[in-house]
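S., here's the first fold you wanted:
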Amino acid sequence: MRTAVVTIARGRHDHLAAQARALAQDPPDLHVVVAMDDPDLAAVVPGAEVVDVPLDRGALPLAAARNAGVRRARELRADLLVLLDVDCIPSPDLLGRYREAAASHSGVLCGPVGYLPPAPAGGYPPTGLAELAVAHPARPVPGDDEVLAAPEPDLFWSLSFATTPDVWDRVGGFCEDYRGYGGEDTDFGHAAARAGVAMFWVGGAWAWHQHHGAGGTPVQHLDDILRNATVFHDRWGWWPMLGWLDDLREHGLAHVDARGRWVRS
């Protein structure tokens, strides 16, 4: 199964280099890196296929960049598409577990993610990350040999997932109406459910999320969140990211206007 890892990035070159070092332990057939207005990124991953994508009116084109990376992987005849955020270091078993799951389960395959503490001086060690990482409390953690059905599309995340080109086409990729941070993941999960595409949690396909200081509600992405929440509401009829939106309201940064829309305060 010809496997492509697709990573989108702007900055975070140290994170990308750590990811590339880990991938070298079990190299994919292709590593497609999408540089979002980052001409220096190609030097970080000299063996990767680099796709350049400009910013979208100043915002990170996360949805469009993922689509561009998948498009290039398919042009290079990938059979399995593994999307991995630049923050994520793949475990040695990640690609193998995704391949095994894809051979017997048609759908969107999500691996568990463990969150790492701040890196020590000199960076994270090459081994032992499983002992350092803490699993996300709101996501399933199947056994290393398990594949569990995932009936809740809200739990989909793009940090680490895999699928085939045929399934990608059924979902339709990421909706490019989203610009910047927030909403496109939940939209993808619901688009998959609407298309009748199953989602699964793949035990053993661990990725280790590198610490970068961001936590809680990302208030620095206020305008992106409000814009993308409105895009989602217009597409699906309900508001996503309510935890973030409520936090923004409590901080006095956003409110619901007379039309029932979330807007900047």
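And the second, which I think is the more interesting of the pair:
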Amino acid sequence: MPIGSSSELQVGEQISAIGNPFGLSGFMTSGIVSQLGRLLPVQGTFFSIPDVIQTDAAINPGNSGGPLLNMNAEIVGINTAIYSSDSSFSGVGFSVPSNVVLKIVPTSITEGEFHHLGLEYQVSTFQLILQSC
């Protein structure tokens, strides 16, 4: 699948999330871009993921690592998380922008890690991304 530019996304734009939630293969949900540039805290750590795409498309367990697509069938993000105040699977979905992935993955493949602002990303962190693309 072609990789699109996440910097061209706009709030209100239609998108689709693909994944395998709950072991169901070939699953697709749709929604809109709700917000851009969100800061997503990583539970159980002192770290956050910057500049994520917020969407109302369902991103359930098993969708993580799957592509977020624009209506031109271009990958504009990698589905990452869902935030829910009551621990249910309904809530707000988040995806890492394709422009961020394009910076991290090649370096992770060639060097085995990626350093950014003092953080280190290991290749294993992006294993699902590589399998999904």
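Why I say that: DSSP finds two helices and eight strands in the chain. The helical segments are 98-111, 127-132.

Talk tomorrow,
H.
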